[in-house]
Design goal:
The protein contains seven helices and no strands. It is mainly α and 135 residues long. The chain folds into two domains: 81 residues, no CATH class; 54 residues.
Length: 135
């Protein structure tokens, strides 16, 4: 395959570029909300946003990857470098505070409380199983 054919196959129509750009922006917004709401997994939304930005705007992707707060989520995941023990403890404690506050202050429905607790257990197990980064 020649270089011209290869670059032409990577070109995306303008409508699709805008769709990917808007999707990326929305996914970043959801990812930021996920930092504060433990029910939303921040990292996956930011990874999806990065994938959308790759297809629409390399500048936006570089901005996201180099962002001092959001970029860490993507880089740690892509490099599989893990989390420090301090980050694991902070994430688990914050997760449980928010889940328990949600379960006992915002709802009276037992099935919602059970669902929130199951989510907290699952996310805690996931965080514990992530490789621990050494300083």
């Amino acid at each position: 395959m020649s270089e011209n054919t290869e670059t032409r196959s990577l070109q995306i129509p303008k409508v699709q570029k805008y769709f990917y750009l808007i999707s990326g922006i929305l996914l970043v917004a959801i990812g930021v909300i996920g930092i504060f709401l433990p029910v939303l997994p921040t990292t996956i939304f930011l990874i999806l946003a990065s994938a959308c930005f790759v297809k629409s705007s390399p500048k936006a992707n570089e901005w996201l990857r180099n962002h001092r707060i959001l970029g860490i989520y993507i880089k740690n995941y892509q490099e599989k470098s893990g989390l420090t023990i301090k980050a694991k403890i902070f994430n688990i404690v914050f997760l449980w505070i928010m889940i328990l506050a949600s379960a006992f202050l915002l709802t009276d429905e037992l099935y919602i409380k059970i669902l929130l607790l199951a989510i907290a257990i699952g996310v805690s197990i996931h965080i514990i199983m992530i490789k621990t980064k050494r300083n």
